[in-house]
Structures are given as structure tokens and as C-alpha cells.
Input
Amino acid sequence: MERKKIISSLFYKFAERLAVKGAGLIIGIILARLLLPEEFGQVAIITIFINLANSIIQNGFNSALIQQKEVDDKDYSTVFYITMVLSAAIVAILFVSSPYIARYYGLPKLVWPMRVYSFSLFFGSFNSIQVAKLQREMRFKPMMYTSLIATILSGVLGVALAYAGAGIWALVVYGCSNIVFSCIAMLFVANWFPRFVFSWRRARTLFSFGWKMLVSAILCSLYNDTRSLIIGKRYSVDDLAYYNRGQQYPEVVSSTIESGIQSVMFPAMARSQSDAQQMRAMLKRTLSLSVFVIMPIMVGLAAVSQSFILLLLTEKWLPSAIYMQIICVGSISISVTSPNLTAIKALGRSDIYMKLEIVRRIVMLAILLVALFAFDSILAIAISYVISSFIDMFIAAAPLKKLLDYSGFKQIKDNWKTLVAALVMGVVVYFVGLLQINLFSLLCIQILCGAVTYVLLCVLLRIESLNYCIQVIKGLKSRR
Output
């Protein structure tokens, strides 16, 4: 694949993620000001089960469609019918089990919101095929527009309901309508609709790769939501809301960059899977750019967390600040873990990917359980995430030593300067935050000082990723 096309795709994918997540961030802030932490905590419990259902429906076959060198309309239609059948089964299970889930958490109001939310799974399964098709074709520009339109329309609807006093339903409608609007908008862009064809042979071929990715996705979803399940049951929905709100902002930033890299580099790497040298070069570049972008943002966000929460969400959400700081530190590891996992998927080694997922989640769960039973606090649960994330970083890198001769220690050696620059920048931003001035001015000064400090340190340390980004920006400008 041509380098220019990859760079252009990365630009539009990042633009899409930044625009969509930025709009979502603004909508989330408005909703957090209008609604109570308790209502966010209730919806957080619902989304645990919806996320797990989406992992079962949308992963596996979706990845297989992207990873295959050649697919046609029969493949897309086959996967569509499989996912729709899965959706129907899971919606039925959620519909029947919702009263028992609500009773378990002592929240009878959850029954119908969960049932209504579950119907969005049908639209999500259809949308996953549309997204896979556009990713294969590297058509990220139209994806940017459709995602942004869906986010804005659903946001307006959610905020209007919140103003009208709809409470938890404002959040449910916001989440459901986003998926529905995205699916409808994609119909005009992907230019694809299922045909009345189905192939068991194609299904078996896709399943041979996809089932391992599916198992991996389910394990990932179960682990990611385990902390929320424990907090919601063991403590309170308010505590869950504070934890999730502190988790949300670092996750928005890291997932924006992570999904942008994976969406573009997965199909790009998959096309080069037979050339180990080229794959290694692509991984090295992807990883260095990921570290260069994610690490300073996470460190900076941790340093400004308190002023950020107070200014944007008001004092009622201040307990979220400490969780935000801790999760930011743990999220630094994603900059290394994500490119490595993307490379393993692109190589078609779903067997290794699944084994890795099992080992990673066992280790992470063990650390979580030790923290829970030894200290029995939400703070300990958050800290366990940091510890397990950095251990996970080395576990995910282990197979790359054999597959591409690019071990975890080589990766750290290639990127240690970026780590130093980010940490020094974080210290500067933290001490700037001690100034006794109004919150808006303080946050602006912290962000400005952090950006200037980081760029200057990158220049002094001669970090190559800075020059690469500058050249990419110049190249995009010249093309325009």
C-alpha cells in the first residue's frame, strides 16, 4: 500500500476520532451538569452488559473480513446474517434477564432502559459490516462525516431529554440513537446492503480466524467491565459514577488514538503480512508515533485532572479527579500494547492473539483480586489497573521477538527519550497548577506550558517522531 494513502487515511481517521470524541466530550459534560451521578452510575451498569453483547456480535467476523486478503459481497452478506442471528439471540437473553440483573443490583428502574438499549444491537451488528467494508477500502473521510453527524444528532436528542427531566432515559436514548443514526448514515456512504446469499464455506473460512478473535474480544470485555461490576455491587452507584467518570476522559483520548491507529494500520499491515522486514518497519513507525502522541497527553491529563474536573463538571464530580489521575498513568501502556497486538492480528496469528488474551486477562484479574481482597477500596482497584497495564505491556510484546525480531526491550530502547520528555513535561504542568488563579486561566496556562515544554524537549532530545509529524503535516498541506 502506498505510503501517501496510509498517511492520508491516518489523517482522516484521527480527524474523525477527534471530531467525534470531541463532540461526545462536550455532550458528556453538558449531560454531567444536568444529570445526577446516580443516573450515570445506573447507565454504567447497563452498558456493561451491552458492551459484552457487542463484543460477541461485532468482533471476530468483523476482524476476519478486514484481515482476509480478498473478500466479496458473499462474504459480507454471510457475516451479516450470522451477526443478525446472534443479535436476536442476545437481545432475547437481555430482555428476559433484565429483571434479574436489576434485582441483583437493587435497581428496579433498570429493567426497561436495559431492554430498550438492547435493541440497538441490531443496528450495531449491521454497522459493523459497513465499518469493515469502509476500513478495507481505506475510506476514512466519509466515515468521519457520518460518525460526526450521528454524534451531534444523538447528542442534541440526549441533551433535550435531559433538559426535559427525563433522567436516565436521556442517557439511554443518547447511546441508542447514536448507533441508529450512524447505521443509517453509513447506508449512503458504504453503498452496501445485504444480498440474499449465504455460504457455509465462506463462513467456515472466516470463522477459522474469527473465533479466536471473538474469544479474545469477550475476555477483554469481561475484564474491562469487571471493575465496574464489582464497584456497582460492592459499593454504590454513586461510587461507580465517580470511577467511570474518572476513567472516561483518559479512555476517550487513548481510545481515540488507539482506534485511529488500529483502523488504518490493521488493513495496511495485513496487506504486507508476507514481508517480515516491511512489517517490522511499519510496527516500529506505528509504535513510535503512538508513544509520541499518547504518552504526553496521558501525563498532561493526569497533571491537570483536578482543575479539569472542577471547571468542566463542577465540584459535585470532584471525587472523580483521583481516579482520572490513576487511570491516565495506566493508559500510558496502551501506546505500546495496541500497536503490538495490531501487528499480531495483521500477521494472521489469531492463535497467538487468543493465547495472549487468555494469559493477559488471567494476570490482570489476579492482580485485581489481590488488590480487592487485600485493601477493599476503589482506590486499590484503580491502582491495580496501573500495575497490570504495565505488566501487560511486556506480555503483549513477547511474541514480536520471534515473529518480527522486535522485542519489548528494543521497543523501550527506541522510545525512552519520549518517556523522559513526557515525564518532565508532567512535572512542569503539575507545579504550574499550584498557581492561585481562576480555573479557566489556570487550565489554559497548564495546557500551553505543557505543549511548549514537550515540543522543546523533543527538539533538544532530537526525537525523530517530531520531525516525522512535521513532514507529514507539510505533505498534507502541499497536497491541498
